[in-house]
Design goal:
Blueprint: H1 3-7, H2 11-19, H3 25-43, E1 46-49, H4 51-66, E2 78-82, H5 109-116, E3 120-125, E4 145-146, E5 149-153, H6 159-166, E6 172-177, H7 183-189, E7 192-195, E8 215-220, H8 223-233, H9 251-256, H10 259-262, E9 266-269, H11 280-295, E10 299-302, H12 311-332, H13 339-349, H14 353-376, E11 379-383, E12 398-399, E13 402-403, H15 416-420, E14 424-431, E15 437-444, H16 449-462
Parallel strand pairs: 2-3, 2-6, 9-10, 9-11
Antiparallel strand pairs: 1-3, 4-5, 6-8, 7-8, 7-14, 11-15, 12-13, 14-15
Helix pairs in contact: 3-4, 6-7, 12-13, 12-14
Length: 472
């Protein structure tokens, strides 16, 4: 197997090859690091790479294999960490000029679990400023670009993670998702992304526990790889009181034979929720992917959920969150804030306490509407994004002819399930006529992560995507 093929080999396969001594962790690491060195200057997927440390850890992992040591699930595998999560000894910028030269003194919860499972942290992936938007640019350097079209955005805020996995710059990537930040780049870059149920993967450190909407999760090339990384990351932690108090399931075993779990399920398909603009090609490709669920033995209904459009309350809560967390820094150095982030902070400052409380009440109503809808259906299928990757320079002005002045106008299928906390996966389902990836979203009931992964695995078996590689 040559170095390029090695970089596109699934993590589950690499793990098995390492255990059977068919390949060394050193070989895997060297292939990935060389590819990063060759392509990252064009993609800007990584903000920091610890090549020296990764090589040393790979050598230690090889020695452990050779002496017959007990190997952990991620033994010797390269893993990238989004640059909103600290990893001790590595640069941690949060995409912000305020932390441009910051070196983390501790590991965040995800990093510590990855290391405990034998994973090797190779670097920190690019993100927008504190993850505030769906395009992966900041004031620290060039924007992250889409491997399929370098003039297009990777999506964000886990944009570096999505671009890295798509380009073969590491098989396993950590992402986080507060309004779509795992699913957006997964969809636009043509890889798999899972936003688990809220609390499935604890979030620590976290300055905003009680108003949190963010979920940690995996971005990978295959569903089984995501299941592997989720199994490592999931499980309760007392530092996050919102974490789910149950041990992780064997997600890898669950996705091996997915069809039995799907037979007889009631599945809803909504192309637009009755209010969201969607480009025709995306509508066609995602509708065809949804239709496959009939062959899986499911009953599929084309329906609109009928819930209230959540854009108003979701955007209010989003703006207030950034005004609260970043307002003081904004006053200190307004020139270190992009105009769109400054506008969000200013908008958040104009929200009264009563208006903020009304938005919280509206979120509660929306959750109840979604809960009732999912009493009738086991899964909901939607387009993941309403269009393919847009310009790396600016957001789209319209979607299918409809003006989209707000970021939330193009995130109609993502942020609702941060508001409710339900598991949702982005599943590749084809390419537009100009070669841009398209994805189907699979949404499950609260805590139904296993079923969402099984549904995604069934899609992967029916129409595999991991063999597709961008021409870089």
């Amino acid at each position: 197997m040559d170095a390029t093929d090695l970089c596109f080999t699934p993590a589950t396969t690499l793990a098995a090859m390492i255990r059977s001594r068919q390949i060394s962790p050193v070989e895997v690491m060297e292939a990935v690091l060389q590819r990063i060195a060759a392509l990252n200057p064009r993609l800007n997927a990584y903000l920091a790479v610890d090549a020296e440390g990764a090589r040393a850890q790979a050598q230690a992992a090889e020695a452990a294999v050779m002496r017959g040591a007990t190997l952990s699930p991620l033994h010797g595998l390269p893993v990238s960490i989004k640059d909103l999560e600290p990893s001790a000894g590595l640069r941690c910028t949060y995409g912000s000029k305020f932390f441009e030269d910051n070196i983390a003194e501790m590991d965040g919860m995800v990093t510590s679990r990855v290391k405990a499972a034998g994973g090797i942290v190779i670097g920190k992936t690019n993100t927008s400023h504190y993850g505030y938007k769906d395009m992966c640019d900041n004031l620290l350097g060039p924007p992250c670009r889409n491997p399929w079209r370098l003039d297009r955005t990777s999506g964000a805020s886990s944009g570096g993670a999505g671009a890295a996995v798509a380009a073969g710059l590491g098989p396993l990537a950590h992402g986080s998702d507060g309004a779509g930040s795992i699913r957006i780049p997964a969809a636009l870059c043509g890889v798999f992304g899972l936003k688990p149920s809220f609390g499935r993967v604890p979030n620590w450190p976290n300055v905003d526990i009680w108003a949190a909407r963010s979920h940690n999760g995996p971005i990978t090339r295959t569903v089984a790889d995501a299941a592997l990384l989720l199994h490592v990351m999931a499980g309760p932690d007392p530092r996050d009181p919102t974490s789910i108090d149950s041990p992780p399931e064997d997600y890898v075993a669950a996705v091996a034979q997915p069809l039995e779990a799907l037979r007889g399920l009631r599945v809803a398909w909504s192309a637009d929720f009755g209010y969201a603009p969607v480009e025709p090609e995306v509508r066609q490709l995602t509708a065809a992917a949804a239709e496959r669920f009939r062959a899986f033995g499911c009953e599929v209904d084309a329906v609109n959920p009928g819930w209230d459009d959540p854009r108003a309350h979701a955007s209010t809560l989003w703006y207030v969150s950034y005004a609260t967390r970043l307002g003081e820094r904004y006053e200190q150095r307004p020139d270190w804030f992009e105009p769109s982030l400054a506008a969000m902070i200013e908008a958040g400052r104009r929200v009264s306490g009563v208006q903020h409380g009304q938005a919280q009440l509206a979120r509660t109503v929306f959750y109840e509407q979604a809960r009732r809808f999912f009493e009738r259906y086991d899964l909901l299928l939607t387009p993941q994004m309403p269009l393919g990757a847009w310009s790396v320079e600016h957001g789209p002005d319209t979607i299918d002819g409809t003006p989209t002045p707000s970021m939330f106008d193009r995130l109609n299928f993502t942020f609702p399930f941060n508001q409710t906390g339900q598991p949702a996966a982005s599943v590749p389902c084809g390419f537009t006529s100009d070669g841009l990836p398209v994805a189907l979203q699979i949404v499950g009931r609260w805590h139904a992560d296993r079923l969402v992964l099984q549904a995604a695995a069934a899609c992967e078996h029916a129409a595999p995507w991991a063999q597709a590689r961008p021409a870089l």
